[in-house]
Design goal:
With about 80 residues, the chain is an alpha+beta fold. It has two helices and four strands. It has a domain of about 50 residues. The chain is about 25% helix and about 25% strand. The mean pLDDT is about 85.
Length: about 80
Amino acid sequence: MLARPILKKTRDQDISSAAKDQARPIDKRFLLRVDGQTKTSFSTKEPAATAGAVIKKAFPIVVVTVVYTEQGTTETINA
């Protein structure tokens, strides 16, 4: 059998191995969820409700909710 070559990382690969875009985003107080999946977060309720209303108007079948993380309450956006 043939021996496999030994792969070595260069110094540049060691430094850039941590992906910059894979850092966890900082969640704000209000989460916008579409069909149970968190899409984005907002610091105040008004922009979250507005964005949710736009999504609900464009896609009336999906379930759009705004979650207030500090109190643990959930508000469903209706068309």
